[in-house]
Amino acid sequence: MPDNIVVERDGAIAVIIVNRPKEMNALNLATMLELDRIIRSLEDDQSVGALIITGSGEKAFVAGADISEMADMGAMQAKEWARLGQQVFSRIENFPRPVIAAVNGYALGGGCELAMACDIRLASEKAKFGQPEVNLGIIPGFGGTQRLTRLVGKGQAKLLIFSGDIIDAQEALRIGLVDRVVSADELMVAAKALANKMIAKAPLAVSQAKLAINKGVEMDSESGYMFESEIFGMCFTTADQKEGMRAFLEKRKPVFSGQ
Ligand code: HXC
Q1: Catalytic residue numbers?
Q2: Which domain holds residue 230?
Q3: Mind listing the UniProt keywords for this protein, alphabetically (predicted)?
Q4: 49 lines ligand 1 (CB under 6 A)
Q5: How far apart are CA 160 and CA 178, in angstroms?
Q6: 63 CB less than 6 Å from ligand 1?
Q7: Is 125 in contact with 184 (CB distance < 8 Å)?
Q8: Residue whose CA lies nearest to ligand 1 atom number 15
């Protein structure tokens, strides 16, 4: 059976590669289930400090959900498909360590939604983004109406979703859909450098900061501040807080244990 998803390890980084290059890495059911299984197993693997998600080949990150599989779906099946994808992408969003999307080419429909489920989007200058679902008589269904709106605001989200326009990496950077653009050659090097930078920090602090941002943004501000202060206090129960502050005062580099 072909591997629709390939996982490569580079030190503490796990690189997840969507591997259907002939189909522009389109997500079919088998691929989505494989992705789900892999994310679950990496969650429990404490040797993994960060994930990078990318697409196989030169042209595509992920060109969306697999249209040939969706064409004859009924309403119930389509809804279940959307729910499955939403759940897998939420699992990625809530992965306890940083997740970087290294967007190497087309990130369309479900592919753009996958990138948006990651913490940070690094794009090659060749990357292209869009939610072209309206061309197919459907709407985004893996969380795009929600995540895109939160990322770029209602106006830009509606502009992309109503028009089906495909935008380049620079425009995606301008509207806040991507966080950094690099040359195609540099993409994986830059993604790994960023991942390693984060891995070198106090791991619990990074994962708790992720929690504070992800959960806090869903709350009203006052609840968000309360949640932040709870987590801030909890940091002071960790060995890494003692080590980080002691190292600063002793003018040396901290050695974090992740405890
Ligand atoms: C199935 C796909 C596909 C997709 C590409 N392919 N995208 N198959 N699902 N999403 C297949 C093509 O059919 C083709 O197969 C092969 O990949 C190469 O694609 P080409 O179109 O020949 O390449 P090119 O001309 O370079 O165009 C690339 C492209 C275009 C711009 C990415 O393929 C495209 O527009 N794809 C569809 C993008 C899209 O609409 N995505 C949103 C899907 S809906 P053959 O066999 O001919 O070689 C969605 C909903 C998510 O994502 C929510 C669900 C709940």
Answers
A1: 113, 133
A2: 203-249
A3: Isomerase, Lyase
A4: no
A5: 14
A6: yes
A7: yes
A8: 23
